[in-house]
Amino acid sequence: MATKAPSHQRQQLLGRAIIYGGLLFMAAFYLMPLWVMITTSVKHLDEIYAGSFIGLPKQITFEAWQTAWSEACNGTACRGLKPYFINSLLMTIPAVLLSTGIGAINGYVITKWRFPGSNVIFGLLLFGCFLPFQAVILPMAQTLGMLGLAGTIPGLVLVHTVYGIAFTTLFFRNYFISIPDELVKAAQIDGAGFIRIFVSIILPTALPIIVVSCIWQFTQIWNDFLFGASFTAGENAPITVALNNIVNVSMGRKQYNVDMAAAMIAALPTLIVYVVAGRYFVRGLTAGAVKG
Amino acid sequence: MSGSIPFSDRIANWLPRLVLAPSLLVVLVVVYLFICWTGWISLSSSMIVPKYDFVGLSQYVRLWSTPRWHTAVFNLVIFSVLFLGITTLLGLLMAILLDQKIRCEGALRAIFLYPMALSFIVTGTAWKWILNPALGVQKVVNDLGWTSFVFDWIARPSFAIYCVVIAAVWQSTGFAMALFLAGLRGIDNSVIKAAQIEGASLPLIYRQIVIPMLRPAFLSVIVLLSYIAIKSFDLILALTNTGPGSATEMPSTFMYSATFRRDQMGVGAASAMMMLMTVVAIIVPYLYSELKETGDGH
Predict the structure, then answer these.
(1) Counting Cβ atoms within 10 Å, is residue B30 exposed (0-12), middle (13-18) or buried (19+)?
(2) Which of A36, A162, B21, B280 has the highest Cβ tally under 10 A?
(3) Which residues of A touch B227 (CB under 8 A)?
């Protein structure tokens, strides 16, 4: 084994070089937009128009970030992204907690208290993961109007919660199905009921999947545009809608540095979550391939 | 028999069902009833507000005689074919490369996947700037000395859709890679070792043995990417705003503008139903096969 032909060794070395070369090239392609966004956002506008696209800024300035945060114009209102950032937080946090809680209980019932028809119910819920929302937008707008929630943040919380249930139920179902049923049976013999078993046996094991569900829901809801654009207007809009409006303002000289700073502000919460808990994010992604 | 069971026990027996009932009810309403509701609007003469009369399939006839809808469907086909093809192949290639016992695999994986954490609005905004002919990539290459280099696809009606493909591929390849990598890690190494001892070369092993074993991963990738393709909406609004003209119109953007901007609610609902039927045709058989297999396993 130790006496490999040198040509074979060279070939292997070449193979490794090609592999690493390909991967590094791809990594550069993937990082380029982020690099361009960050560097553009800290450049002076004159430098950008002078033709510096990919290079380092001559002088770093956070003026564009300041403008994007508190002054940029969305339609006629020039209050920056700050109020919409707060809207998105007010919308996302309750919807994440509600949908995750409901999904946990549903997953528990579907896996540990199976009854005739519970699989059909799971199948019905599951299709909700793949619903093209265009097919429900009109009735939802009517319903929100009837409930007096049209154009409000609580209305968006409601919408994101009900359409989140399908995914969160799937997460918890696939996780709980691997917990042995004997555990539940033993607890039942000891006299523990439906709620006791959930709180003291199932939930303590579920921390990883709770994190997965919260991260997935946070990313989905924070990044949503369709519901925000369809059900809100003006000052109750979430940040994605405000960002799109700010970027598409066509008056005067285009402020690319402000656009990029605004995009970074809208992206930061989900990016931070991804950097801190990327492992759980990937698990949420691959759960889309239904099998548990 | 059931009369002899104490009341509290009967409650306990029904408790799981009672707990599940509200969710089921909500989903039945907001998914299934709402779909029927949209279907009903698509059969009515609704314009600005919903009207609940019945005009048969005339909104569908109007939809299919709208040139803008033809553009949308045509774009969806081009976009889907390119997006699915490139993303699947690139994702598979990246997964295979990453599976060669690479140093810093974790870091590379994180780099390939971070776009999935971004909003399509952010992606669209970033790529709109990169593809800007006056100041973006074209300018960089021109400044490097290749002055005749032209890359103004985003401004040209017949090429703008390819810009959407580029941005969408950038955003989603990491996702395909993650699914393929999970598939690759599930393959028994002894099979590959045995083939290597037989003297098979690595590319041959991948072509003949590994890739055929990835069939389930391929299925998931293709189905989930088609779903992303059909519903893609925000990326187009942010990147091209369906322009130049209506060159990058897609069914999702058509539905939105017909309903909320052009006061053609009936046509909008009809286009939404067309989108739904396409998704159902792809997703339902997939879910059925996935669930059947899991069901067998237990």
Answers:
(1) buried
(2) A162
(3) 130, 132
Over the stretch A112-167, which tens digit does the pLDDT of each residue have?
888 888 888 888 888 888 899 999 999 999 999 999 999 999 999 999 999 999 98
> For residues B25 and A104, what is the distance between their CA atoms, to the nearest angstrom?
17
| A187: contact with B, CB 8 A cutoff | no
Give the count of alpha carbons within 13 A of B192, CB side only.
19
User: What distance in Å separates residue A98's CA from the closest CA in chain B?
Assistant: 12
Q: Report the amino acid identity of residue A266.
A: A
pTM: 0.90
DSSP H stretches of helix in chain A:
6-41, 45-49, 63-70, 82-112, 118-127, 137-146, 153-176, 181-189, 194-197, 203-205, 207-223, 226-231, 239-247, 256-286
Nearest Cα residue to B31 out of A111, A159, A107, A110? A159
Q: Is the Cβ of A253 closer than 8 Å to some Cβ of chain B?
A: no
Inter-residue contact B29 to B21 (CB < 8 Å)? no
- Beta bridge partners, A77, equal A74
Q: What are the angstrom distances between the C-alpha of A177 and each of A110, A119, A139?
A: 9, 13, 35
- Percent pLDDT > 70 in chain B is 96
A23, A139, A281: residue with CB nearest B102: A23
The helix/strand/coil state of B2 is: helix
Domains and CATH numbers, chain B: 66-297 (1.10.3720.10)
Residue B33 burial by CB count (10 A; 0-12/13-18/19+): exposed, middle or buried?
middle
> In angstroms, rounded to a whole number, what is the distance separating the alpha carbons of residues A36 and B123?
12
DSSP B250: -
CB A90: neighbour CB atoms within 10 A? 16
The closest of B234, B113, B91, B212 to B164, measured between CA atoms, is B234
Residue B265 · residue B44 · CB < 8 Å: no
Q: How far apart are CA B95 and CA B83, in angstroms?
A: 18
